[in-house]
Design goal:
Helices cover 24% and strands 32% of the residues. It is built from seven helices and twelve strands. The structure holds biotin.
């Protein structure tokens, strides 16, 4: 595993994608600050220099069958590490991690296609470890940070080590077996099943109302529509 550290960069994901060919498999890219931190749905990821985690992994597995499940695997790994700080993480499908219903961790996976074939992914993760109220309030949706939740400054190096070690501990198993391998762990953090939820495909789209029924063995969300008909949701933003 190689570690690349930057003080300030536009985005660790952008760097990972731009240099994908020359970077080794399992390269970890870390920055103290990002000037163009990106989230899902083209949202901005606030990336100030405040001892938060901004990290991307360059992953080039031989077998890419379960590669899309890596975001959900990473959400479980992050929730497990957050739990060691005595907070109670929740996973909001597919891969947001919340504490007290506020987002603390976001994951952005970007596939890299070469000659019409998926050659790997850049798996980016941002975790709010040490933020002040003012910066958190500037985020346009409910967000929190581990220092606020615990009342203590968080040691970033310690958190990073736990995160990277736990990710690689079960990475091969997750890649060989897919979502089923960690489904039970994922479900431990889920608290929206049985509830009325809304799904939005992208910002400003219509919100569709369902009852969340289940997570299937592939990690998709199974919902019931207003006529009690089952529908499988493969992607989108969950609101509840
Ligand atoms: C989301 O929840 O919308 C995903 C946020 C992902 C943020 C991380 S921070 C490190 C990496 N670099 C980026 O520009 N984005 C990801």
């Amino acid at each position: 595993m190689k570690l690349l550290k930057f003080d300030c960069i536009d985005s660790t994901n952008t760097y990972g994608k731009a240099n994908f060919d020359t970077l080794d498999d399992k390269t970890v890219i870390i920055a103290n600050e990002q000037t163009k931190g990106r989230g899902r749905f083209n949202r901005v990821w606030v990336s100030k220099n405040c001892e938060n985690i901004y990290l991307s992994l360059v992953l080039k597995p031989q077998n890419t069958k379960y590669i899309t499940n890596l975001t959900q695997y990473m959400s479980v790994v992050s929730a497990d590490v957050l739990k060691t700080y005595n907070v109670q993480p929740q996973i909001k499908w597919p891969n947001d991690v919340l504490v007290n219903n506020k987002k603390i961790c976001g994951i952005l996976s970007e596939g890299v296609i070469k000659n019409n074939q998926l050659s790997g992914i850049v798996l980016g993760i941002g975790i709010n470890l040490n933020m002040d109220d003012k910066t958190l309030n500037s985020i346009d949706r409910p967000a929190t940070s581990l220092n606020i939740e615990t009342g203590k400054q968080i040691n970033k190096e310690e958190f990073l080590k736990k995160l990277i070690d736990s990710f690689f501990e079960n990475y091969n198993n997750a890649m060989q077996n897919g979502f089923e391998y960690f489904k039970n762990d994922y479900l431990k953090y889920v608290d929206f099943l049985g509830k009325t939820v809304f799904i939005q495909q992208r910002d400003n789209d219509k919100k569709e109302q369902y009852i969340a029924k289940n997570i299937d063995n592939q990690g998709n969300l199974v919902v019931l529509d207003s006529t009690n008909k089952e529908k499988i949701i493969y992607s989108g933003d969950l609101i509840y």
